[in-house]
Design a protein that fits this description.
The structure is a homodimer of 371-residue chains.
Chain A (H helix, E strand, L loop, with lengths): L2 E2 L11 H6 L4 E5 L2 E6 L3 H10 L2 E4 L5 E5 L3 H8 L12 E3 L2 E2 L5 E3 L2 E6 L2 E5 L5 H11 L5 E3 L4 E6 L3 H9 L11 E6 L2 E6 L8 E6 L5 H11 L6 E3 L3 H7 L34 H10 L3 E8 L12 E5 L2 E12 L4 E9 L7 E6 L2 E8 L9
Parallel strand pairs in A: 4-16
Antiparallel strand pairs in A: 2-3, 4-12, 5-10, 5-11, 6-9, 7-8, 9-10, 12-15, 13-14, 14-15, 17-20, 17-22, 18-19, 18-21, 19-20, 21-22
Chain lengths: 371, 371
């Protein structure tokens, strides 16, 4: 099988050298940056995350900075979630929609100051989008990508590891809130966040030249816990029901279809992008919803399971957008983007590489009872 | 060394199966699609391109379609090149700039009909950009990415190969013009274009399910010429002076800095994005320009040469943005994005992985006399 060249246009993370030294075995391109996605032992990494603590290079989760008198206005028009009550030091998970109400990213919006927001983005060019909106509307705001590179520490022991470095004050950080910190002269922000449901923190490194230093500090602090070297974990995130923007949606997916309706406030101002479309969709009711899929068979399937037809009694009802092996369920599981006619508990057929595989529709997040 | 996972989010080209059957050895991600960049014998592929004929999967060069009453207006506001005289059937190379005058893509704009343009794009999300502009300006135009996937046939014998399939009429196609065609029921457009200076055509496949069929038709038609299986060629494109958007520029590069000034018309209407900034830059004169760099030494350097400091007498004057082995010059060559104080003929030092390598600044395109 051919590989993807680590070519010149893909940026290296500040943690690149550290991850290579750790034996990284594969990357994915993410916001034009190499994001580690394997160190050769997926099950051990899953166990570290759910039972212990794991550290991940997620620098590819870039920050888009909105800075200036109109920064708060721009953050609001980019997002269909009400940000008017956000406090400095607080982050909020916000769907960014286009004018038709389709989700084009699902960042965390961090309120850095009254005139400064960061959007901690998934894998699409929100910087370009934000610059276009700001310029077209004549807003007084500078959109940039600052030198900020998150390092995630996730898992039930993450708090102890991070507290051992920065002090017990981090134990009081509320979910999605963040605070400035410094270690060994390295400037950073610490947020209680991360792309797992196992708890933990993201260390927003603010000096790309100190990536290896920060990596090694966390690595050494984690030694008493035998910290794992991991990456955003496909099994855990699907078991827990976290969305992977781009992976779990097509180009016309609205927030209500992928369980993001709770993050849409229909009473935001009329100049918020997509809000008219979202109000209409909410009134009419979405045509699709996202359900869990548990496939028959108790052996892991090879390769990536992605965009396979899902049918009930021979009629296509949607797609399994992503699939992976679940260590918790000991089944292959997936997310379905399906007609609202398809309901939890129904039996379906999934077309996988020419094979028809029986499956059951479930709620998300998954539980062992879903087997 | 780690590899990049061929993961679920990267799309497969309609020619994917054909290229795998041909023994593709590496891909790059390009507009979220896998674009082949190697079949294991780079020198043979270079020779096929410059001496004979080569076929390339360039489906990653996606088309952004602007369709509707305001399509021509949208094409024009997206581009600082005057499109008012473009004819149906004609393509034009157009820099797409942001509001500050920085180049965000350099597509071919193909006028498909009076109310329809395609932008045949480099590797950035012009679709998102165009949708934003259209919506913010209330334009009556639909922006989409249709099912269109170019297959390039390049090299001095490309015309004979393409004529043997479609007939001698294609010999009359002018540079960047295109025409509808059909073979074996496969709908396509044929353009005289391609990312080399060796001449040739791009076959815009308009039915993604027929990728292998079209591939095999061209493959078989090319047999009398011993057609090569290639890919956008780093050596030839640099020797010839073709720009690689994203590779040869940073995020604040204006067209005048990278030899695209001829494609900017300063008298386009005031609502063209970036035109005010471009007029100002043109009046003040750009601060940087792009020159050729010929490195000392007659052996190919390993790896990708990218964004290395260039200095004159110890003072940094800019960056070597890309570098590669030139089979024509039998030297390592590069493009420099350099202060306008740096001039053709000057000796410079390039910092390459801790090594200081002497080099000479040259004009672009390169000639053997530049050695």
């Amino acid at each position: 099988m051919a590989d993807i060249a680590i070519h010149s246009r893909l940026r290296r993370s500040p943690y690149y050298e550290a991850t290579v030294a750790e034996g990284v075995t594969s990357f994915i391109p993410y916001n034009d940056m190499l994001l580690p996605l394997g160190y050769g032992n997926p099950e051990a990494e899953y166990r570290n995350l759910v039972d212990n603590v794991s550290m991940w290079d997620v620098a590819g989760e870039r920050q888009i900075q909105l800075l200036g008198p109109d920064a708060a206005d721009l953050a609001q028009v980019l997002s269909a979630r009400d940000l008017s009550k956000a406090k400095v030091g607080q982050g909020k998970y916000v769907p960014v929609c286009d004018h038709g109400g389709s989700v084009i990213n699902d960042p965390i919006a961090l309120k850095i100051a009254d005139d400064c927001f960061w959007l901690s983005i998934a894998d699409s060019d929100v910087g370009m989008w934000a610059r276009c909106v700001a310029a077209e509307r004549g807003m007084n705001v500078e959109v940039s990508e600052p030198d900020v590179s998150p390092l995630a520490v996730q898992g039930p022991n993450a708090e102890d590891v991070v507290a051992s470095i920065f002090g017990d004050w981090i134990r009081k950080l509320r979910f999605f809130w963040f605070s400035d910190a410094e270690i060994a002269g390295i400037p950073l922000k610490i947020a209680r966040s991360g792309w797992s449901k196992q708890g933990g923190f993201e260390l927003y490194l603010m000096d790309g030249s100190r990536g290896s230093d920060l990596w090694n500090i966390v690595r050494e602090a984690g030694e008493p816990w035998d910290i794992g070297i991991g990456y955003p974990n496909p099994s855990e995130r699907m078991e827990s029901g976290l969305l992977s923007w781009g992976g779990d949606c097509d180009r016309q997916t609205n927030p209500f279809e992928v369980r993001l309706g709770d993050y849409v406030d229909l009473d935001v101002p009329d100049d918020v992008i997509g809000i008219a479309a979202l109000r209409r969709i909410a009134a009419e009711g979405p045509k699709r919803h996202q359900l869990g899929i548990v496939l028959e068979g108790d052996q892991p399937r090879p390769g990536h399971m992605k965009w396979h037809d899902v049918a009930i009694n021979g009629d296509k009802v949607g797609d399994m957008t992503c699939g992976t092996w679940s260590y918790k369920l000991e089944r292959n599981i997936g997310f379905g983007l399906l007609s609202v006619d398809a309901q939890i508990g129904q039996e379906v057929d999934v077309q996988l590489d020419g094979e028809t595989v029986g499956a059951k529709l479930t709620d998300i997040p998954f539980t062992v009872e879903d087997r």
